[in-house]
From TrEMBL:
Bilayer topology: Multi-pass membrane protein
Keyword Heme: no
Entry's transmembrane regions: 21-45, 70-94, 106-128, 140-164, 196-214, 252-274
Protein name: Sulfate transport system permease protein CysT
Matches recorded under SUPFAM superfamilies: MetI-like (SSF161098)
Keywords noted in UniProt: Membrane, Sulfate transport, Transmembrane, Transmembrane helix, Transport
Compartments where found: Cell membrane
């Protein structure tokens, strides 16, 4: 007489034909702890040592608030611009064949390989009042260099590849026959974009936006040259942290860094919630 096997309980490790779960999990946890958790914990601990009164005094300082507004505001605008034009660039590279396409595709990755300081110097040379582009904009009353607009342009430059490389693989997997079927059924181009293409691209677009935004918030090298670094006008939060460190004001530097960390986590939480919503809505 045979007895039925007892139902299996919950297991931390699911059965797998691939060995090495314990080793790889331990390495992953150790790596994350050493590289991410310990530095962030040290930052939070050093900020907590200030006390609530001192921490709030640093956070409520007008210069700190203005630097945070410039950093997060320009990063948000640049990420939004990259979403629009990055999606268009990905569409052109995927759907069209033209001479020099591979060169254009390779140029998209240029901000990844180019040192950020070199990018900042090049952009400043172009958009300064006496630069090639800047001197054409000055008669129109548009000043780019040494203003928040210059910061946005620098962040657009370094953030564009994040959107293109995130959207491009998903766009390559979209079936053209579905678009053709929708067109034969009477759908116009706007309906095809909003009801056929956008649902499949929405998670990738949101991911590209979050990557570009996260890169823009912490960007330093390409911004300090074109920003002008004027307090209350074009000073970014990472630069203010460096200034406080050079003044040996470590509590203020860690407090500003902790505020940036908290705001970044909050923004990424909102982005992840938007991604989850788009997946549930569009599949």
């Amino acid at each position: 007489m045979t007895t039925a096997p007892a139902p299996a309980g919950w297991r931390f490790k699911q059965p797998s034909v691939i060995p090495g779960f314990g080793l790889t999990l331990g390495f992953s946890l150790a790596y994350l702890t050493l590289i991410i958790l310990i530095p962030l914990s040290g930052l939070v601990w050093r900020s907590a040592a200030l006390g609530w009164t001192d921490f709030w005094a640093i956070a409520a300082d007008r210069r700190t608030i203005n630097a945070l507004e410039i950093s997060f505001g320009t990063a948000f605008i640049a990420a939004g611009v990259n979403v629009v034009f990055g999606t268009i660039v990905a569409w052109v590279l995927v759907r069209y064949r033209f001479p020099g396409r591979r060169i254009v595709d390779a140029m998209v990755d240029l901000p990844f390989a180019l040192p950020t300081a070199v990018a900042g110097i090049a952009l400043t040379t172009l958009y300064a009042p006496n630069g090639w582009i800047g001197k054409l904009l000055m008669p129109l009353g548009i000043k780019v260099a040494y203003t928040p607009l210059g910061i946005v342009i620098a962040l657009v430059f370094i953030g564009l590849p994040f959107v293109v490389r995130t959207v491009q693989p998903i766009m390559e997997e979209l079936d053209k026959e579905v678009e053709e079927a929708a067109a034969t059924l009477g759908a116009n181009r706007f309906q095809i974009i909003t009801r056929i293409l956008f649902p499949g691209l929405a998670p990738a677009i949101i991911t590209g936006f979050s990557l570009a935004f996260a890169r823009g918030v912490g960007e330093y090298g390409s911004v300090i040259f074109i920003a002008g670094n004027l307090p209350f006008k074009s000073e970014i939060a990472p630069l203010l942290i460096v200034i406080r460190l050079e003044e040996y004001n470590y509590p203020a530097a860690t407090a500003i860094a902790a505020i940036m960390l908290a705001l970044s986590f909050l923004m990424l939480l909102v982005v992840n919630l938007a991604q989850s919503w788009s997946r549930k809505r569009y599949g």
